[in-house]
Every structure is written in structure tokens, then in C-alpha cells.
Amino acid sequence: MITLEKIQAIILYFSENTNNQYLGKVKLMKLFYFLDFVHVKEYGIPVTFDTYYKLDKGPIPTYIKNVVDDACENEENSLLRDSINFETPLGTQMKKAVAKRKFNEGDKKLFSKSEFEILKKVSERFSETTTNAIIEISHKEAPYIESEISQIIPYELAARDSDSKFTAEEIELSIKVTSC
């Protein structure tokens, strides 16, 4: 499972490298999804190893969502309180991620070369993407299409996207070996 320190680093990176106007809680969850599933398609394993569920607004990472929800509801006691704040812009219901500090070299050291490459790639791809647009894009991914609503989205389904370099069996084996 991913460390809290790495979750903070990922959110800090996304907040600095995507248009913050669109970086609400929902888009943030989709960015985590693409970080994990693009890494699976390119390297055979996820970055966070979180469990994703299929919901109406797209895939949701369970542990990360709980950490972010806690930060939104209880800022003073949040596990993210040293690095991230969530604000509600006037006239919206959006919970916007706002960094309290900059992403730094210490944060970068938490990532392997491939993880940082995909973090950068996902940020660049979705930098100017609105929440509704990233939801629609996530709905076109094989893992989302082939999962049932309110059910777990297995990482192995990433193999069914045409851009995957791995089979479902290879992904399953890579995840088993890595999580031992």
C-alpha cells in the first residue's frame, strides 16, 4: 500500500503541474486512476496499489479517497494538513486542492524513474482537462467499461486497452510478485 508521504507528494505534484482551477477532489481521484493504470499498461504494476471501485463519476481509489475526504472534512486533524488544504471556491460545491508547500527534491525521491515519468505524463495530458471531461475519458477505458458499478476494478483489465504492453496474466503476476 502507498505511504501517506507519497500520497502527499503526488497531490503536490498534481497541484503544481495541472491547472489548479480544475483540480477538485473528483478530478484528483481520476488523476490517481490514470497514474496507476497508465503505469500498469507501461510497466505492469500500479504506483499506489490502491483498490479502485467503479462509480458513476468514474474510478475511485478507496484508501486515497478516504484520506482526501478526511482532509476536506477535518483540516486541522487531517493526515495531509502539512501539505494540502481543500477549499470550496465561492459559488461552487467543488473541493479544490491547494498546496501549502512546493513539490521538492525530497518528494521526487519517493518515486522510481518510471513512476515519476508517468506522474509527469499524466499531469501533462490532463493539465487543462475539466472534471467532466476527465470523467468522460475515464469512462472510455477498458477497466471502467468492463467492470460493474460499485465493484472493484481489477488492474488486470488494463491489458484490454490497446495501449497496454502487458497481458492480464503478466499484470496479475507482476502485482503478486511486487506485493509480497
Task: Explain how this protein is built.
A hairpin with a 2-residue loop joins strand 1 and strand 2. The mean pLDDT is 94. The chain is mainly α. The strands form 2 sheets. It has a two-stranded antiparallel sheet. Strands 3-4 form a two-stranded antiparallel ribbon. The chain has one domain (4-175). Helices cover 48% and strands 9% of the residues. Pfam families: SocA_Panacea (PF13274).
User: How confident is the prediction overall: mean pLDDT?
Assistant: 94
Q: Which stretches are low in confidence, meaning pLDDT under 50 for 5 or more residues running?
A: none
- Summed up, the helix count is 8
Instruction: Tell me the distance between the termini.
Output: 11 Å
Count of separate structural domains: 1
User: Which sequence of SSEs, written as H and E, runs from N to C?
Assistant: HHEEHEEHHHHH
Derived structural class: mainly alpha
General shape: globular
Proportion of residues in extended strands: 5-15%
Strand order, main sheet: write it out: 1-2
**Estimated radius of gyration:** 16 Å
Largest sheet: 2 strands, antiparallel
Helix content: 40-55%
- How many strands appear in the DSSP assignment? 4
